[in-house]
Each structure stands twice: as C-alpha cells, then as structure tokens.
C-alpha cells in the first residue's frame, strides 16, 4: 500500500475532507490494472512528459498521491502535475499538501507545477492535458450553489462562508451531474490526443447512461468503469470511469 | 507560480479560447522569487518538446530575465560526457522549475483582462458577467 499524503494542515471547516470517494481514486490510480494501462499509454522514456491535471483538488490529497507516487503509477517520474479549484483556501492548502508529499520522496521527483484558482479547466490551454482527474460535486441537489466572489470570500461571517465553500464541493444540482456535465463537455478540447480522464460518479449520476453518452461522442471515445467502491452503501455507491480516445 | 505553468495556461474567458492572442498570458508588475529545486534531467529533456520556445522567450523578456537563445536547445547538449548536467540544462531548469512569480498580474493579449497572482497563486475566477 502506498502511503496517503498528510493533510493535517488543511482546515476541513472550509475544504472538503478526504473521504471514501478520495480514497477510491487513490486505490484506482494505483491499482495493478491502471498502473499497467498508464505505463503502456505513456511509455518512458521515449515519449514527452505527461501533464496531469486535477480539477477541484480540495485538500490536494489525490494530486499529492499521484505526484508522490508518479514512478509507481505512471512508470516514470518525469511527469508534471497541475491543479485547479474554485475555493481559494483549497488552492493554497492543496499546494502545500502536494509540495509536502513530493518532498518526502527520493529523487528523481515528479514536477509539481502549481494549483491555481479557477473554474474547472477554464484557464487550461486546449490539447495539453494528458491525464485529467475529477472528483466532482456529485450529490444531487435542488439547486447548484453559486461560486463565491471576492466579496463573499472576504465576508466576516466566516461560518456562513465556510458552509458555502463546503456546499460547492459536494452539491451537484440535477442528478448531481450539472458540474460534471460541464467538465465532460470540455474534455475533447482539453485532453491531448493521448489524453485520459478519470471521473468519479455515484449511482445517482446514472454512470451507465453517462458512459453511453461519451461513447456516442464523435471520433471514437471509450468509457469504462475501472474502479468501484464495491460495497453497496445505499445510494452513494461510487465508480471511477476512465475516458479516452480509442 | 512557475514559469513552466504559463506554458499550459490561457485566458479563462470563453470568447478568448479561439483567439491565438490569449496565449501566452503576459506577466506584469511581477515579483519573482527563485525557489531552489532538485534538477531532474529526464524531466527537462522530456518536457522540452512540449515547451513553446517562442512563448518562453517572450515571457523571459517581459520579466526582464536574461535573453534566451534564438532557438530551443538540443537535449543532446544537456549532459556532459561524464554524465553531469551542463550549464544549458541547469539554466533551463532554473528558468522553468525554480523561477516563481510570487505577486503580480497576468494579462490576456486578447481581451486585456488582468488576473492577479498573490503569494504565488494565480486567480482565474471571473465575475459571472465575464464568463
């Protein structure tokens, strides 16, 4: 078992605390089948260094895990890692999580670039991302919460601000898919020709229908379930779907 | 924020996505800090094909850094015969991996929107009327 990065510096009042979904991503990325897939998909050292982007990094535990264990997961340490989050507090905390986890590794170490504040992939140049990881706000809710502007972030009502930030991390609107759908719509543009995405879904997101929709995209896309929380824990049974050009 | 990161970012506005002027973003009033990092020769070598050299030259110039060679170095010049990193490799490592914009702005060449960088973290969130 690979170690889980430390998040003891992260304030879970305002930032999503690593939970079953986060750990499912760690287990899936480091599983024998995915490490074999990634190593053969990005053969080392003959191909350019892959760029890994995690969208909505939260505490940074997933990005830190992937960066610290790049050699095991990708079969190479010459991998670059980038993250985004709408929550300014999360972006700062996650950067610290990744830096800390990478620094504990022996050389050669992977390259942690930055975590930036941003909405999904909006600031990322098209066609550059080789591996995209997304643990979305997937819980079905009546409405999708609005992102916090600078004024709301500076509000003295810290408790209210923090609960809004946490809500952003889990509330997914209709079918829990409103944010995930926005991300999926941008995938063909954002991913490189060799790009692969890992997206977490819960049972209420209707993963089978999501996969069918992706397979119907023009130019031959594949979507397969490559990880599952296994136990039937009511409605929150989780799956990881791998999406790539066939 | 590392200079290497700028190789992968554009303006966050939808209307700028298809405009070539939205890449790269231009640093302004930038406070630079060099943060030492261990050199990973294979990483620099395998990142090189992904780096837009013209863009890197522009950014370096805008930041007032020493000017870069006209064309990208050859990765065959990265190691000495004794297997030690050459100055060419060290310089590129410093530029890409060690130079950080701690505070300042990033300006889009298309819409001229300014994104703030504070304490090393860039903010690409847009007010809702600009998305």
Automatic annotation (TrEMBL), chain A:
Keyword flag Methyltransferase: yes
Gene Ontology biological process terms in this record: methylation
Residue ranges of every copy of the Methyltransferase small domain listed in the record: 35-139
One Pfam family, short name: MTS
Gene3D superfamilies, alphabetized: Vaccinia Virus protein VP39
PROSITE patterns from the UniProt entry: N6_MTASE
Record keyword S-adenosyl-L-methionine present: yes
Lineage: superkingdom: Eukaryota
Keywords: Methyltransferase, S-adenosyl-L-methionine, Transferase
Gene Ontology CC: eRF1 methyltransferase complex
Molecular function terms, GO-annotated: nucleic acid binding; protein methyltransferase activity; S-adenosylmethionine-dependent methyltransferase activity
Family that this chain belongs to: Belongs to the eukaryotic/archaeal PrmC-related family.
PANTHER family assigned: METHYLTRANSFERASE N6AMT1
Protein name from the UniProt record: Methyltransferase small domain-containing protein
From TrEMBL, chain B:
An example molecular function term from Gene Ontology annotations: protein heterodimerization activity
Database matches in InterPro entries: Trm112 (IPR039127), Trm112-like (IPR005651)
Comp. bias (Acidic residues): 73-84
Classification via Pfam families: Trm112p
Superkingdom, taxonomy of origin: Eukaryota
GO biological process, any: tRNA methylation
Region (Disordered): 66-86
PANTHER family registered for this protein in UniProt: MULTIFUNCTIONAL METHYLTRANSFERASE SUBUNIT TRM112-LIKE PROTEIN (PTHR12773:SF0), UPF0315 PROTEIN-RELATED (PTHR12773)
Entry's family note: Belongs to the TRM112 family.
The name this protein goes by in its record: Multifunctional methyltransferase subunit trm112
Species assigned in the record: Cladosporium halotolerans
């Amino acid at each position: 078992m690979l170690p889980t990065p430390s998040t003891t510096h992260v304030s879970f009042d305002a930032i999503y605390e690593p939970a079953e979904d986060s750990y499912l991503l760690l287990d899936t990325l480091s599983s024998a089948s995915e490490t074999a897939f990634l190593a053969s998909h990005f053969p080392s050292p003959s191909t350019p260094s892959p760029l890994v982007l995690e969208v909505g990094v939260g505490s940074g535990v997933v990005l830190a895990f992937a960066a610290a264990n790049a050699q095991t997961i990708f079969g190479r340490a010459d991998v670059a890692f980038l993250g985004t989050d709408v929550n300014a507090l999360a972006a700062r905390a996650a950067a610290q999580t990744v830096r800390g986890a990478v620094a504990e590794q022996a050389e050669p170490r992977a390259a942690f670039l930055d975590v930036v504040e941003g909405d999904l992939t909006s600031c990322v140049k098209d066609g550059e991302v080789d591996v995209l990881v997304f643990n979305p706000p997937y819980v079905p809710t009546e409405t999708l919460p609005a992102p916090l502007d600078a004024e709301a972030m500076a509000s003295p009502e810290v408790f209210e601000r923090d609960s809004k930030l946490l809500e952003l991390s889990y509330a997914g609107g209709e079918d829990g898919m409103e944010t995930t759908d926005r991300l999926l719509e941008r995938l063909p543009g954002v991913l490189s020709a060799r790009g692969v995405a890992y997206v977490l879904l819960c049972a209420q997101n209707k993963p089978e229908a999501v996969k069918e929709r992706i397979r119907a995209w023009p130019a031959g896309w594949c979507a397969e379930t490559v990880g599952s929380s296994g136990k039937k824990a009511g409605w929150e049974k989780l799956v990881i779907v791998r999406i790539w050009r066939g | 924020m590392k200079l290497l990161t700028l190789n992968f970012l554009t303006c966050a506005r939808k209307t700028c996505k298809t405009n070539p002027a939205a890449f790269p973003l231009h640093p302004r009033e930038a406070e630079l800090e060099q943060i030492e990092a261990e050199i990973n020769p294979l990483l620099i070598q395998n990142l090189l094909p992904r780096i837009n050299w013209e863009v890197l030259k522009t950014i370096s110039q805008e930041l007032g850094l020493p000017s870069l060679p006209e064309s990208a170095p050859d990765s065959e010049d990265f190691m000495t015969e004794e297997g030690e990193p050459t100055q060419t490799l060290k310089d590129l490592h410093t530029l890409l991996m060690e130079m950080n914009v701690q505070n300042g702005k990033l300006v889009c060449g298309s819409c001229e929107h300014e994104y703030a960088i504070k304490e090393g973290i860039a903010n690409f969130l847009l007010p809702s009327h600009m998305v």
